[in-house]
């Protein structure tokens, strides 16, 4: 037992050291906004500087709601980053505006934690959040967030000069808030344009995938430990797979401290970091016989949406090329038959590969992923492997990622004086999105500012925005 603990500790140390090279060459996004909402000072988290949204360094550029409030929270949970020690609170529709330098897919992360102050309590927080016309949160509350923070992450195609995040309380007796915001331009290869649409026994191409709005539901490191933003080139969190694995019978964990060989045209370090591809679960033949079983993971999902399922593979278990063949199933349907990692990974061991599948959600409310032996599997080799799983919810046709109402209808729930010209503008967006899931709203503004450090009150900017659109 003592030797086992020493080996595990050594593996984690080597794993951390092996990721240093990747961190040193981390991705440098053109748009990189890290905002500490409600704080009076800047905050550093994992060597990343979150700027206070009340900074006066560029006060001549700021327009913000006089009704928003900055609060310092009394809980002071020492286990959480300091960005959760403050919040910005809104009692009317308000927004943050970010200038976009690099059009394309952007990562948007919203950070929330329970409020505990003399002025506000979490039970009174209920609100909607819109991002450039997409409804990313509807009737959201943090009542179930008790001991840990909640990070809502989205991948959204931006083809405008501005990214606008709007917070709207559900009614006048409620309020909205946010602890921190991240807006980061994504690598161009993070979301490609085509995936495989798997339905029943039929597989078709799903095109224009990169133009969809996506919500990250699950990001799982199969067979390995939790990967924190500090050890990920895109500052993501990967959770262990234990709670999603249906049964560990017949499978085993494998680890590698060797180099991961990223190749041009394959998975990059931004697609998945070393710490993800250095661990896996495998099905291994025993007694020269092929096991009659699959490894299966199950994920609760919401009905009525399509989901992007990204599966990560890296052969860190085989002793030679040309030995590993297996089948991949999504929702019980065969998605990839006789997958040969030697071919798809450029005839190199420890070279990562990923596959994207689009599936519908079923009435069971469960999305399943399985890996198992194929007709080509060998009785003396590894007969299945999986390194990581990502599951992302795709927007409905009217730009909805949460709830049933599009942005225009949500804005109409507030008096016209508070949202003004934005109601017909976003309502028009809903109509366009209902005609085509690939239509996106574009807002144009005269002024060129990097971002509005304090949220703008929608009612205070209505006439100005209306004139510009006219």
Can you describe this structure?
- The protein is mainly beta and 470 residues long.
- The protein contains eight helices and 28 strands.
- The strands form five sheets. Strands 1, 2, 3, 7, 10, 13, 14, 15, 16, 17, 21, 24 and 27 form a 13-stranded mixed β-sheet that branches. The protein has a five-stranded antiparallel β-sheet with strand order 9-8-11-6-28. It has a four-stranded antiparallel β-sheet with strand order 20-25-22-23.
- Strand 22 and strand 23 form a beta hairpin.
- It is elongated.
- This is Malectin like domain-containing protein.
- It comes from Citrus sinensis (Sweet orange).
Topology of helices and strands:
Elements: H1 2-18, H2 20-24, E1 32-36, E2 43-45, E3 48-52, E4 69-72, E5 86-90, E6 94-99, E7 104-112, E8 127-131, E9 134-140, E10 150-158, E11 162-169, E12 176-178, E13 180-185, E14 195-199, E15 202-206, E16 214-221, E17 239-240, E18 251-255, H3 274-277, E19 279-284, E20 295-300, E21 306-313, E22 325-330, E23 333-340, H4 341-344, E24 353-360, E25 366-373, E26 382-386, E27 388-394, H5 407-411, H6 416-419, H7 422-435, E28 456-457, H8 462-469
Parallel strand pairs: 1-3, 14-24, 16-17
Antiparallel strand pairs: 1-13, 2-3, 4-5, 5-12, 6-11, 6-28, 7-10, 7-13, 8-9, 8-11, 10-16, 14-15, 16-27, 18-19, 19-26, 20-25, 21-24, 21-27, 22-23, 22-25
Organism: Citrus sinensis (Sweet orange)
Protein name: Malectin like domain-containing protein
